[in-house]
Amino acid sequence: MSSHQRTIAHVRAYTVTGGGADYHDQGSDHWIDDHIATPMSGYPGYADSRQSFGINVLGTLMVEIEADDGTVGFAVSTGGELGAWIVEKHLVRFLEGAPVTDLERIWDQMYRSTLFYGRRGIVLNTISAIDLALYDLLGRLRQEPVYALLGGPVREELSMYATGARPDIAKELGFLGGKMPLHHGPADGEEGMEQNIALLADMRERVGEDFWLMYDCWMSLDVDYATRLAHRAHEHGLRWLEEALIPDDYWGYRQLRKNAPSGMLITTGEHEATRWGFRQLLEMGAADIIQPDVGWCGGITELLKISALADAHGAMVVPHGSSVYSYHFVITRTNSPFSEFLMMHPSAEEIVPMFSPMLLGEPVPADGTIRVPDTPGFGVEFNPEIPRHRPHTH
Ligand SMILES: C[C@H](O)[C@H](O)CC(=O)C(=O)O
Ligand SMILES: [Mg+2]
C-alpha cells in the first residue's frame, strides 16, 4: 500500500522538561540566562535572569502521530502542557482517520479553527509541532529524508554560524560567525551602551577582521537605542543587529532599517508566525534577513510559503534554531545560504547537540558544517531515557 492510502490512527501529545525544544529551560549557570537584555529589563526584579520572568515556563511539547500500519512519526517544539491540551482536546479531530498525506487540508483546518484564540504564539507552536510530526511520519512511510520530500538539496552541506557567549571559540571550531546575546538595553543607560560596545570590541580583537560578529537583542531595544547601537557597533564590523524591537513594531523595524549604517543587516522574525505575519515584515521592508522558527511559525507547510514570499522580496531566510527541523528545510532552499547553531553547552565552549538531551542521532557541526541525515523522516529518535508525561488524553 503506498503512503497516500495510509491513514492516521492515533495522535498523542506529551510534555518534557529540561532543555530540548524549550532550549531556554537550562540550569542557572548557563550563558543563556546571564543578564541578557529583554523586553522585561526595565523592571528591576526581572533584569538579571530571563527565567525570573518565566522564559522557561512552557517546556517542550512532543507530538507523536501513528499511521494505521503502526509507523510512528514525531516532533518536538516549545509548548508543554498548554500545547498538549490544544492537540488532544481540539486539533486531533482534524487528524485521526485522515490520509497521512493531507498536509495542506490539515494545516488549513488547524489554523482556521483556532483563529478565535490563536494566530500566533502557543497555538502556532502547536500547529507547527503537528505539521513537523506529519512530515516525519511521511518520510518514514516513504523511507525518505524530509529534504527529499521538499524537492531535494541545493547544496551538499550546511554552513553554520554559532549563537552563544564565545564567538572566539566558535571561530576556532570552524563556524562562519558568532552571534552574542546583548546584555544591556535602554534601562542600563549609557554605561550599559559602553559595556555592549566594549564586549564587541574585545571579541573583534580576538577573532580578527573577517569573522562575522552579530548581536541578538531579543526584543529589548527601542528605535533610538538600536540606531545608536548600530552606528557604534558598525565601527567594530557588526554584521547584523537581530530582533532589536518587539515583534509587533513593524513600523519601528522599517525605521531602523532606514537608520542603520550602510552594510549592516537588520534581521528579525523568530517570534513572528504565518505567511501573513511575514508578509507584513516583507512588504514594509522591515528586514534584510527573516528568521522564522519552523517549530513556531507554522511548521514546514507554512515555512515553504514564507520562504517563497521572502524570495520574491529579495530577502534571505535564515531560520531560528530548531535543529533538524530547520536543517532539512535550509538544505533545499537557495535563499537560505547558511544556518544557525545554538551553542547549548553551559559556557558555549564545546559543541553539544542543540536539542540535547532529547533527540538521538541529532547531527552536530564538524568544522562549521553539518551534513543533513539521509535517514527517513527528520532522521532523529526521541531519547527513551528522557521521562515524558501525557497530561491529557482524548
Ligand atoms: C541568545 C538569544 O537571546 C536567544 O536565547 C536565542 C535567539 O534568539 C537566537 O538564537 O536567535
Ligand atoms: Mg534571536
Automatic annotation (TrEMBL):
Residues 167-261 form the Mandelate racemase/muconate lactonizing enzyme C-terminal domain. It catalyses: L-rhamnonate = 2-dehydro-3-deoxy-L-rhamnonate + H2O. PANTHER family: ENOLASE SUPERFAMILY, MANDELATE RACEMASE, MITOCHONDRIAL ENOLASE SUPERFAMILY MEMBER 1. NCBIfam families: PRK15440.1 (NF011968). This is L-rhamnonate dehydratase. The active site is at 320 (proton acceptor). The record marks 340 as: Transition state stabilizer. Mg(2+) binds at residues 216, 242, 270. Substrate binds at residues 24, 50, 340. Reaction proceeds via a syn dehydration. Its cofactor is Mg(2+).
